[in-house]
Amino acid sequence: MREDPLVAELVMGVRAGDRQAWEELVERYAPLVWSISRRMGLSRSDSEDVGQQVWLRTVEHLAELREPAALPGWLVTVTRRECLRVMAQRRVSLAHDPTGDRLEVPAGDDPAAVDDELLAAEREAALRRAFGQLRPECQQLLALLVHEPPLPYREISAKLGIAVGSIGPTRGRCLDALRRSPALATLIADVDPGQGR
Amino acid sequence: MPDRWWVDDRSLLQALAEALRHGDVPASFVEAGKLAFPSEDLDAELAALTHDSAADGTPATSGTRSDELASLRQLSYRATRARLEIELGVAEDAVVGQLLPPQAGTVEVDPARGERTTGTVNQAGGFVIRPIPPTPFRLRFHVGAGVRVVTEWITLANPWR
Known about the structure:
Helix content of chain B: 10-25%
Distance between the termini of chain A: 24 Å
Strand order of the largest sheet of chain B: 6-5-8-9-1-2-3-4-7
CATH class of the domain at 5-126 in chain A: Mainly Alpha
Oligomer: heterodimer
CATH superfamily of the domain at 5-126 in chain A: RNA polymerase sigma factor, region 2, helix turn helix motif
Distance between the termini of chain B: 36 Å
Number of helices of chain A: 9
CATH architecture of the domain at 5-126 in chain A: Orthogonal Bundle
Number of strands of chain B: 9
Shape of chain A: globular
Largest sheet of chain A: none
Largest sheet of chain B: 9 strands, mixed
Radius of gyration of chain B: 22 Å
Largest interface: A-B, 49 and 40 residues
Shape of chain B: elongated
Order of helices and strands of chain B: HHEHEEEEEEEE
């Protein structure tokens, strides 16, 4: 995600007034903007407001971006700042609420935090792609296993029509398939080149 | 997240859980993003905010020429090339504006979400926008001989909502 030649192409397209390039750019980065806001603890409705401001700012300032490939990092910074602004407003309105003080306020453009967000976004995008490459049986089982709140094995067994005793082994096989799927295998090889798993 | 989160089944499942949760981007979120693209006026000059009474604590009293409405907040924008200043007074139920130097034309209200509307700017450069549009919005002015100016996005966020 950080060194994607397509980003530069899309940015140039948008600058030239190409609406389709803009729509592609939004589709590509909506999960990044959305997940940052959610990770920072904002509600769905606040996250929608954050997105609104982030896109407007992006349209306005895209022309000033010196290095188009730097767009993802720039988006992370703008999104974090916007989240902090919303959190600060909420804090004002929660001034008399004792839980209001517990909100953590991290710095908006700390380079290490920006890098962490990009890595997390990259990891999550690879995981979602890898998940999409699994057999439907594995997708169903894993989706039930990560359900919030957690489901008891007997409920999973009833839903999928498999024995409780085979959930564990199937889970192991499905996670192995996840690791080996091209999307995740590529990421793992990048992060940990010496890994001969 | 541990360094080698993919090795252990439990941490891999945890990573997958987060990825699936965060990937749950509402379609409305993506659509709103697409709509942010300016459909026209790429050649209009952007008028930048030069003063905001809410930012510096100046009491917002008069200032615009339409003084019949007490304004709660005053904003000024300037387009340097077009030599146009836009003064806005935000009253309780309307935005009262003044172009400097005074000149007639049209003003289009362009909210990020919702319909655009067009109003007139009178000979004295005055205009009234009622009710206050949903924010953020921008104002596009068409004055004189093809002079086109668009303000930055105007946010009149109410922290108490």
